[in-house]
Every structure is written in C-alpha cells, then in structure tokens.
Design brief:
The complex is a heterodimer of chains A (224) and B (111). Chain A is mainly α and 224 residues long. Chain A is built from 9 helices and 2 strands, in the order ααααααβααβα. The model of chain B has no long low-confidence stretch (mean pLDDT 87). The chains are: A mainly alpha (224), B alpha+beta (111).
C-alpha cells in the first residue's frame, strides 16, 4: 500500500473522529507531514496506525489525550526522531516535478500571451538564457523562502487552544507580496546579458506542452 | 547522557515488546492491548509507537502492511533475526539482575 493510498484512506477515516479527537490528531498529522526530509511512506504508515488506535480508543470512550498524552508536540517529536529519512532518489523527482511544472506553465503562458499580443503589436521574442536563468534562480529563492516561512507559521500555530489564523494569513500574504514586488523590481532593472536566440510563441507553447505532458505521464506511472 | 534509570527501563520495555511480537506478529493496537492485559498499562497506549519505530530503525523488527481479517490494511510487526538475538540478550540480562534485585527488595523487613 503506497503513501498516496494511505493518505486517501486517512482522509476517509479521519471523518469518524469526534471534534475533540480530530483537533488533536489533525495537528499531529500536519506537524509530521511538514517534515519533508522524512520518508513519506513511513510517516503515513505510522499516522495510519495512530489513527486506527485512536478510533479503537474512541469506541472505548477514550480521548486522544488519554492515548497519546497531554504533550502532543513532545509525542510527535519523539516519533519524528525515530522516523527514517526520505531516500534522496525519491526527493529528486519530487523537486524536479515541481520545477518542471512551473517552467512548463510559464512557457505555455508566455506562448499564449505572445500569440495574443502579436496580433496588436510587435513582440520581442528574443530570449537571453543567462538573464532568464538569473531571474529563475531569484524566483526559486523567493518561493523557497516564502514556503519555509509559511511552514514555520503553520508549525507555530499547531497544538494551541487559541489560534490567530487571520493574523497569520495577513503575515503570509504580506511576505508573498513583498517577495513578488522585489522580484519584479529586480527583473525590470536587470540588464539583458549574454547571447540570445529567437523563441517564438509556438515553440514556447510546444516545449511547455511537452514538458507538462511528460510530468503528467510520470505521475500517472508512479500512482499505478 | 541518558540516566541509568531510563536506560534500564528502555531495555526492559524493548524486551517486553519483542517478546510479545515473538509469540505472533501483531499490529499496533493489538500490541497495546496485549501489553495492557499482561499488566503493563504504562506502555499500553501511544508510547508504543516511538518504541516500534526505534526497533524498526535498529532492524530488530520489521513492519509489513497486510490485509486483516476484519478488512482494513494493518501494519503487522515481525521479529527479525537481529531481534531474536536482542531478545535473547535482554532475557539473559534480566535473569541476572532480577533474582538479586528481587531478593533485596522483596526481602526487606516490613515496617
């Protein structure tokens, strides 16, 4: 049984929890899933065991606190300490897939945009690979920083009686907007460097489409 | 450094869990119920999961998802060869220590 199936089963079974138990278990689940360096398969297996145990206990009138103790963070940290790390060869396709997805969609949007624009005006379809790479790295850096920041916000909000969700949402939104503004500003003032080549709208469309198609096939094969 | 007290407890708990699994493969909740029935209520609930993970990591047991009689897939734990060896060791150590400790503690004068 692979991790994807376990996640689906987990979603289904979690609905049987009482509100109190769901609050406790839900936080535990997010906290453990946020540890991206851990083996996904092993994490999902232990999460399923805990859920089964909790459901059995619930039948006997026990709460999550009775079963897992009143220090959920400490309990989760103990589990995390003993969970094996994800193998590197599984991380590479995961991260590669995300990058490929973004690049693929960017190329398709660029193709579509240039097709529409070229109806009305002259469009510069030259691409400077060096400049493009610099901008891509910058965007990647910004995206990673934002994701890490949002994860930290989520992690801090877990296992608390009272939550200030709205304040966190504003913080996350502000971080995203500020990063985006910085990227746009730098892009605007970055001189075009290095060699360039023509990259027409249809070539952009084609390459983006092929890229997304390959990723889709890869995912389908993994799920099977 | 871990205190001697918690090290000792850890070893004993490991031994108990390994001994239950040796009898027959069990899944998490089943293991907790068996420990509870033996009288080890302290380790019968959530505390077994970090122990199970640690024993797996050290290669003393291995887990396998299997369909159970009542339907859902469950992770059953099996003793490995290394686990068998570890259990022998723990049992041997326990034999050495339990007799004198028993004599000492149970032989105290009442009052």
């Amino acid at each position: 049984m692979n991790a994807q199936k376990l996640i689906k089963e987990n979603n289904r079974k979690r609905e049987m929890l009482t509100a109190e138990n769901e609050a406790y278990y839900g936080d535990l689940l997010i906290y453990i899933r946020l540890q991206f360096s851990l083996s996904e398969q092993q994490s999902e297996e232990v999460l399923m065991e805990l859920l089964e145990h909790l459901l059995e206990g619930q039948k006997a009138g026990k709460t999550a606190k009775d079963i897992f103790g009143d220090d959920p963070r400490g309990f989760a940290d103990e589990l995390i300490e003993h969970l094996p790390k994800e193998e590197k060869r599984k991380l590479i396709p995961f991260i590669g897939g995300i990058i490929g997805d973004i690049v693929g969609w960017l190329l398709i949007i660029r193709g579509g945009l240039f097709l529409v624009l070229s109806q009305f005006t002259e469009v510069d379809t030259k691409v400077h690979p060096l400049s493009a790479l610099l901008i891509a790295l910058m965007i990647a850096g910004f995206v990673i920083i934002t994701i890490v920041y949002v994860f930290k916000l989520v992690e801090r909000s877990l296992f608390r009686e009272k939550r200030n969700t709205r304040k966190d949402t504003i913080k996350a939104g502000f971080a995203g907007a500020a990063g985006m503004a910085a990227v746009l500003l730098i892009t605007k003032f970055l001189p075009e460097m290095g060699p360039s080549f023509e990259f027409s709208w249809w070539a952009s469309f084609l390459v983006g489409g092929i890229l997304l198609g390959l990723i889709y096939l890869g995912k389908k094969r993994k799920a099977a | 450094m871990m205190s001697i007290r918690s090290q000792l407890l850890k070893g004993i708990l490991d031994g108990c869990v390994l001994a239950v699994i040796e009898k027959e493969p069990v899944y998490g909740y089943e293991l907790s119920q068996k420990l509870l029935n033996i009288g080890l209520a302290e380790v019968s609930e959530g505390t077994i999961y970090p122990i199970l993970l640690r024993l797996q990591k050290n290669g003393l047991i291995r887990g396998e998802m299997r369909p159970s009689e009542s339907g859902p897939n469950r992770k059953y734990y099996f003793l490995t060869e290394a686990g068998q060896e570890a259990l022998e060791n723990i049992t041997g150590e326990w034999k050495q220590i339990s007799k004198p400790v028993n004599q000492l503690l149970m032989g105290r004068r009442e009052g």
